[in-house]
TrEMBL record:
Catalyzed chemical reaction(s): 1-(5-phospho-beta-D-ribosyl)-ATP + diphosphate = 5-phospho-alpha-D-ribose 1-diphosphate + ATP
Pathway membership: Amino-acid biosynthesis; L-histidine biosynthesis; L-histidine from 5-phospho-alpha-D-ribose 1-diphosphate: step 1/9
Native organism: Oceanobacillus limi
Name of protein: ATP phosphoribosyltransferase
Subunit architecture: Heteromultimer composed of HisG and HisZ subunits.
GO molecular-function term, one example from the UniProt record: ATP binding
Enzyme class at the top of the EC tree: transferase
UniProt xrefs under NCBIfam families: hisG
Length: 208
């Protein structure tokens, strides 16, 4: 079988991803907590695992640097990459919302929207026919409406605690998010058996 490369999102979903791979029978050398290594091998099953920043996973997969990616739907939607999404892995559950102060959406012909996900924000308001200006931030997005830099935010909500503690409320609920398995289109054509075998093993592990 051909060597296959899997790009795995670092961060809060990485432990669940590694556990799922282990229960599907993949075991990578030296993959301990807190390691600074970025490349791991399951030599027996000919799988190479690369650990990359979540936001970059779709890029690695679209460019063919990885055959498969394991990453949140948020980053897939934002990247708008040309790839296949084959499996919902069901962890990393959260949702996209529009949030702000209660009055944020009222009586405005044009909105300023702060987000880590400007493409998702733009697409949402475009569908509604509302022109917006986006401000791209890389974190602590909830601050933007509090200091008057934006009218609303488009961000991820999991428990709701961050919004609550900053006096913001959910104004609209958008897409449901969870971790997905994505595949490079050319790899799927040339390594079909290897990829299907990998997907089947993960599916069984999810069911088990
Ligand atoms: N409460 C949550 N906040 C953010 N992401 C969450 C949450 N719950 C689940 N996720 C999922 O976990 C993925 C990784 O989140 P994480 O915060 O580690 O990455 P990140 O956004 O790249 O972080 P950072 O930019 O702080 O390094 C997200 O892309 C999302 O799919
Ligand atoms: O609904 P909650 O459970 O409170 O989680 C949602 C928060 O988690 C994420 O931020 P993260 O922790 O990744 O920090 P960041 O500000 O650096 O993006 C997200 O952007 C929200 O701020």
């Amino acid at each position: 079988m051909a060597l296959m490369t899997v790009a795995l999102a670092k961060g809060r979903t990485s432990n669940s991803s590694i556990k799922l791979l282990q229960s599907a029978g993949f075991h990578f050398d030296d993959i301990e907590d807190n390691t600074r290594k970025l490349v791991f091998y399951d030599k027996e099953r000919k799988v190479k695992l690369i650990s990359v920043k979540a936001v970059d996973v779709p890029t690695y997969v679209e460019k063919g640097a990885a055959d498969i990616g394991i990453v949140g739907k948020d980053n897939i939607l934002e990247a708008q990459s040309d790839l296949y999404e084959l499996l919902d892995l069901n962890f990393g559950q959260c949702k996209f919302v529009v949030a702000g102060l209660n009055s944020s959406l009222q009586q405005r012909s044009r909105l300023t929207v702060a987000s880590k996900y400007p493409v998702v924000a733009q697409n949402h308001f475009q569908r509604k026919g509302i022109p917006i200006e986006t401000i791209k931030l890389n974190g602590s997005v909830e601050l933007a409406p509090l200091i008057g830099m934006a009218d609303v935010i488009v961000d991820i909500v999991e428990t709701g605690r961050t919004l609550r503690e900053n006096g913001l409320t959910v104004l609209e609920e958008l897409d449901h998010i969870s971790t997905r398995l994505i595949v490079n289109k050319a790899s799927f054509a040339t390594k079909t058996d290897t990829i299907e075998d990998f997907v089947t093993k993960l599916k069984k592990a999810l069911e088990g």
